[in-house]
Amino acid sequence: GAVVSQHPSRVICKSGTSVKIECRSLDFQATTMFWYRQFPKQSLMLMATSNEGSKATYEQGVEKDKFLINHASLTLSTLTVTSAHPEDSSFYICSASPLPGQTAYEQYFGPGTRLTVT
Amino acid sequence: SQQGEEDPQALSIQEGENATMNCSYKTSINNLQWYRQNSGRGLVHLILIRSNEREKHSGRLRVTLDTSKKSSSLLITASRAADTASYFCATDASGGSNYKLTFGKGTLLTVNP
């Protein structure tokens, strides 16, 4: 149980275009979803936290207008990288928790999406 | 401040040997978790230890937690080539937004057949 999928697994896009990444919880309802970014051989950095039906909470230094997050249902969150630049190239990982707010340390991770901006 | 720093950064051992990785953190925590990440893949949850626990076992894994030293160790016994991966510790801080996991930089473990 507790499976999280991401789509696509890899995407290449041209500079200036937008790309959407989907994160789905397959066998549980995800009250809270998280988006992380990971550079090569680096750790995961939390970008934002989203709760179903409400606006995402972004971490300091993350541009909310560039990284649009929508948590439209209890099983789906999307991250849209707008006007992508080569420096946005990275590995994006989502996680989902069946628990709300303060207890959402129980997180299940997706397999990640490799974004390359040319 | 950096929370959850693992050492060593890289560890190479032979199959059958034990592997020990350490994690240090700076602030008080509620829980500490260990994850494994195969190259280019997502994270797999290995084990969670709560702040009031000192040791936990799961199969070939043994995790210890010393809150007085703000450190944890992950021991993998009788390692296998399939254990080759990066291992991260993650903490959620007590008080405030404890749902935020802070990850360390990870230890890259290579198990040679």
Structure described in brief:
Chain A has 118 residues and is mainly beta. Chain A contains no helices and 11 strands.
List keywords for this structure.
heterodimer, A: 118 residues, mainly beta, seven-stranded mixed β-sheet, 11 strands, 0% helix, globular, B: 113 residues, six-stranded mixed β-sheet, five-stranded antiparallel β-sheet
Describe the structure.
The complex is a heterodimer of chains A (118) and B (113). Chain A is mainly β and 118 residues long. Chain A has no helices and eleven strands. In chain A, strands 2, 4, 5, 6, 9, 10 and 11 form a seven-stranded mixed sheet that branches. In chain A, strands 1-3-8-7 form a four-stranded antiparallel sheet, with no helix packed on it. By secondary structure, chain B is mainly beta. Chain B is 0% helix and 58% strand. Chain B has no helices and eleven strands. In chain B, the strands form two sheets. In chain B, strands 2, 4, 5, 9, 10 and 11 form a six-stranded mixed sheet that branches. A five-stranded antiparallel sheet of chain B has the order 1-3-8-7-6, with no helix packed on it. In chain B, strand 6 (55-58) and strand 7 (61-66) form a beta hairpin. In chain B, 36% of the residues are buried. The mean pLDDT of chain B is 89. Classes of the chains: A mainly beta (118), B mainly beta (113).
